[in-house]
Amino acid sequence: MFKHRESAPRLSLALQGGGAHGAFTWGVLDALLEDGRFEFDGISGTSAGAMNALALANGWLKGGAEGARECLAAFWNGVALMSHSELASPVMDASAVAPGTAWMMQLTRWFSPYQLNPLDLNPLRDLVVELFDFERLRTESTFQLFVAATHANSGHLKLFRNADLSADALLASACLPTVHHAIMIDGEPYWDGGYAANPAVFPLFRYCDSRDILLVLLAPLEHERTPRGAEEIQQRTLELGFNNAFLREMRLFVAMRDMAEESGWLSGTLEQRLRGARFHMIEGEEALGSLAATTKIVANQAFLHRLRDAGRANAKRWLAAHALAVGHRPSVDIQKLFLPN
């Protein structure tokens, strides 16, 4: 097993979900691993973010940073290969939704996955079972892993930690209820983790030693225009629903930190941890903001690689500007971002 370097700055990662847009996070992680100056402590992920988290951790077990980069590439290239040939083939616009896929997604408005896919076929299951060694992830990973899913009957957040990891737990985190059957684990049904946390940040604060948390965000924190068309409004409401839990969690964190500072009572462990937390952020607004929400289901390789390259570029800019802040000071003002006056 590959051990951490004690002298390296430690950093925890919070990886947002977003379907195919998660390839942007692939690029971010690839650049961080290539840079090699940080040790990762905890990794929290939802949906595509959870896939990225486990790909990194799985590859690390086999070959350190280079093994993690290889596993991330194998996962996303596998996503492209497993897709319908219509998706995998070159198209004029790499971000265009293939007609067959658009038609299938239209059908999900009128038919449930239990009608459209009664056998519950899911090619993603074959891919993650082939690539990820869940037994080693449960028992040997040096990272604290947190995979978010939503209990379908209560809306409660379910966090799968290292000892709970399985193909079902990972697939539960990415289970869109209009596309897939609910994932059953110990007799309980689970849907996509984005409904409850996208991603969950509090476990990084509560369970991890590192005080530095890097948010890798795919959803814009603010939209430039108000949607007016019916399709646009539906997509915006869906996006807001998936992002609401994360925004609420970050607002609560800021409010609690402000309350601790205003009270002047900072001797307690919680107060010290609140004051000592340092946040950093890499976001995909420049690369993803102009893309239609439907591109989250575009799985052709050219599009995924384009997003990977954008993620790498953003991460390299962040490293050049803020890498030295890790371990010393925050590089993003969460008060301004999440709870402005």
From TrEMBL:
Superkingdom, taxonomy of origin: Bacteria
Domain PNPLA residue range list: 13-205
The keyword Nucleotide-binding is assigned to this record: no
Catalytic site: S47, D192
Organism the protein comes from: Uliginosibacterium flavum
Protein name: Patatin-like phospholipase family protein
Sequence motif: GXSXG, positions: 45-49
Family matches, as InterPro entries: Acyl_Trfase/lysoPLipase, NTE, PNPLA_dom
Any Pfam family hit: Patatin
Positions occupied by motif GXGXXG: 17-22
UniProtKB keywords: Hydrolase, Lipid degradation, Lipid metabolism
Residue ranges of the motif DGA/G: 192-194
